[in-house]
């Protein structure tokens, strides 16, 4: 799942717990994010406003990168260098917009996810490189424009490559406590501060000695 990019960039173990082991725990922040998405979207709605078509909840895929996902919103603008869209005259260029709760983050996790969406759209629509896209943040209620630079694209590709490799191996990285564990939604499942357990052979040996 493309949305896994933000988990992977936060913590590779968190990503593996969610996307390989299907572990999840709701908290105030996760539920708040879901409500915001629900309020912002109508999956069946396609709006046409002057020279702009707005689609909601568009399913996306990249066969080259073995990834699937969903764009919260894709706006299509009239553009002579764009592509055909069934049912609409003229040529159109896509502009993905992702909705997030809270504020813009210091790290690039949201921007990486957005860039991944653009790469999928380019492959699906056979269009030119999408130069920029936007993230709408719920707290300032504003859009942040994101330039889809070559550096950001390279980071997305290398991250997806590593995610696919872990996924195919069914590999969950070992726990390693860090400061960000305090804000992790899976800390009650991951138990980052639990002392590392003995191996099975050590456990059996110690049990035999005790007896
Ligand atoms: S608790 Fe820490 S190590 Fe465990 S998944 Fe969360 S961030 Fe990663």
List the helices and strands and how they pair.
Elements: H1 4-10, H2 12-19, H3 28-40, E1 46-49, E2 52-62, E3 67-85, E4 88-100, H4 109-125, E5 132-137, E6 142-147, H5 150-169, H6 187-190, H7 200-210
Parallel strand pairs: 4-5
Antiparallel strand pairs: 1-2, 2-3, 3-4, 5-6
Helix pairs in contact: 1-2, 1-4, 4-5
| Cα-based radius of gyration, to the nearest Å | 21 Å
CATH class: Alpha Beta
- Low-confidence spans: none
List of distinct ligands in this structure = iron/sulfur cluster
Shape-level CATH architecture: Alpha-Beta Complex
Q: How would you describe this protein?
A:
This protein has helices at residues 4-10, 12-19, 28-40, 109-125, 150-169, 187-190, 200-210; strands at residues 46-49, 52-62, 67-85, 88-100, 132-137, 142-147. The chain is of the alpha+beta class and 211 residues long. It has one domain: Lambda Exonuclease, Chain A (Alpha-Beta Complex), CATH 3.90.320.10. Strand 2 and strand 3 form a beta hairpin. Helix 1 (4-10) runs antiparallel to helix 2 (12-19) and helix 4 packs across helix 5 (150-169). The longest helix has 20 residues, at 150-169. It is elongated and about 80 Å long. The N and C termini lie far apart (49 Å). The mean pLDDT is 89.
């Amino acid at each position: 799942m493309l949305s896994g990019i933000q988990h992977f960039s936060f913590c590779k173990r968190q990503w593996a717990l969610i996307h390989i082991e299907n572990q999840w725990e709701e908290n105030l922040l996760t539920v708040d994010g879901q409500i915001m998405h629900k309020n912002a979207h109508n999956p069946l709605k396609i709006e046409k406003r002057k020279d702009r078509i707005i689609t909601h909840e568009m399913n996306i895929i990249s066969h080259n990168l073995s990834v699937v996902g969903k764009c919260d919103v894709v706006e299509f603008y009239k553009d002579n260098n764009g592509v055909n869209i069934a049912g609409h005259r003229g040529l159109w260029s896509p502009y993905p917009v992702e909705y997030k709760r809270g504020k813009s983050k210091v790290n690039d996790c949201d921007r990486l996810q957005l860039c991944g969406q653009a790469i999928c759209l380019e492959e699906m629509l056979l269009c030119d490189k999408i130069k920029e896209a936007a993230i709408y943040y719920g707290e300032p209620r504003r859009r942040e424009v994101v330039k889809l630079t070559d550096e950001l694209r390279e980071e997305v590709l290398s991250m997806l490559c590593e995610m696919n490799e872990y996924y195919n191996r069914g590999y969950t990285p070992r726990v390693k406590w860090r400061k960000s564990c305090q804000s992790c939604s899976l800390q009650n499942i991951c138990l980052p501060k639990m002392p590392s357990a003995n191996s099975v052979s050590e456990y059996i040996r110690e049990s035999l000695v005790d007896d």
